[in-house]
Amino acid sequence: xxxxxxxxxxxxxxxxxxxxxxxxxxxxxxxxxxxxxxxxxxxxxxxxxxxxxxxxxxxxxxxxxxxxxxxxxxxxxxxxxxxxxxxxxxxxxxxxxxxxxxxxxxxxxxxxxxxxxxxxxxxxxxxxxxxxxxxxxxxxxxxxxxxxxxxxxxxxxxxxxxxxxxxxxxxxxxxxxxxxxxxxxxxxxxxxxxxxxxxxxxxxxxxxxxxxxxxxxxxxxxxxxxxxxx
Length: 230
Prior knowledge:
By secondary structure, this protein is an alpha+beta fold. The protein has helices at residues 6-11, 18-40, 42-46, 50-68, 75-97, 99-106, 120-125, 130-139, 177-180; strands at residues 110-114, 117-118, 148-153, 159-163, 191-195, 201-204, 220-222. It is elongated and about 80 Å long.
């Protein structure tokens, strides 16, 4: 039975001394990354839009290889960092000067809910699923759409919500799972019902089959009108 070569298992084809070089390279790259992020400015590290995510991934990719490949000198990532930071600064400058260029790079904020109803056409443009959006609303204390005056999907992916005052809350589509899952085309009692697709509220009589006047869907949920619990 061959002897186990622990040196090869632990450090591969290199010698133990290469670990010292890796430590030095890693420390130097750490400070290069720190300086690079600092040069990006506060906007670059506050939140990550799609554009900023590309920049961060590029910096991480440039920083990784020099840490453990001795064939790559440290001036290579320094040059890459300088190019990425310069490109970032130029892009943000052009974004500040041109609204059209800003929209092209980062996109536009999307109004998902207005006056307690889904903006169906806007919602269809995004890849966000209804369940995922409802989850975002529930985490901010929303139990039905009638509590929400406006909900905006920001370019960062966050959802901004503006609420009706308690005395102005209107009947709306419930988004709690147990209530929403009762959606049906069959109306079992008179009352106000919300379209399960767009949230439009209509008064429907028992046994009546109705298509939504806003989106033409025909599944309804008994509308909720409770104020938001804060």
